[in-house]
Specification:
By secondary structure, the protein is mostly loops. Helices cover 14% and strands 10% of the residues. It starts with 27 loop residues before the first strand and ends with a helix.
Length: 105
Amino acid sequence: KAKNLPFWGMALDEQSRCYHYHSENDIVALKCQNCQKYYACYHCHDSLEDHPFVATNSQESYPVMCGACQHLLSLKDYQKGYCIFCQHSFNPKCFLHYDIYFKKE
């Protein structure tokens, strides 16, 4: 973690882009159910923690943080594909990792 940012990861910029994902729209940080920290991606989490990333369950109110404005988002808000607060779009390919970050219940 660097620069007192509210999210964690490797080689982070100010909007939660990391070493692994750093396109214009890679700005979400996702919460690990186990450690309760927001990470830029599961690769960063698994490299920096002593446990694997654990997907959040349906009871988690805010499993996502927008890296651009640092507002917390519900899963429903995140699924819109953009931040409801700052309107910055998210990477549409993130759905490929949906099962890593969110438990199906």
